[in-house]
Request: fold
Amino acid sequence: MDARNVSYSDEIEVYLRPPTWTRFLKLFFLKNEFSILRSLEYEILTENQISGQILDIGGGVATDYYKRIEEWAKADIKCKYESVNIDQAAKSTYVVEPGRSWPVSSDTYDTVMSLNTFEHIYDLQQVLSEIYRILTSQGCLLFTVPFVFRVHGCPNDYIRGTPSFWHNILVENRFENIEIEAINWGPFSTGLTVSGVPGPFKSIRRNFAIIMDIIYFQMRYAKQDKIHWKQNHQICNAPLGYFISARKI
Reply:
């Protein structure tokens, strides 16, 4: 696509789910098996139906979330899961080399998903071009990426994109109906996560931060079920990550 014909935007609206006691009991009370970021990601994916022919970028049957695919697909009997990865250990359907085209026919998949993988991809334009090619008309791209999060391997870590970055690069690659949600519980738990929770009593300190975020939101943003703000608003300008959806029209 000619970049001169792309409509860029810096005034991106970001959705945010305020923390509540109900969500706390469901996601965190007496539960420490997942990080805060991962718990919030799984919550969102449970509420966003994936269906049809699915390709998971960075996935495979050996990933820790593979068994949750059926839950996210909501008993879609026509759902068929496949995956692509650069790592053979993930036991993906296709093992590919970075920068190469994928051995997949065009207009094949109804849903392309990716969890915490795009930050590890140096040539995002090439990958997004491949995704657009293999998606069917009206096909959906769903992905999560970290933002305020520690640098990590697999094998390299390149990107921490803002909502404007993700919106504009998706527009450049002809995607439409772009929606961005901040994956965030609140400032106290974000600060704790970034620190890596050094020192003793980790579970106690984690739960204390999570509860403090609920109190903070109830005092400042009471009775707002799901809110949205510009990306630089103080309540959503430093999330743990983003959940982003877009369609091939």
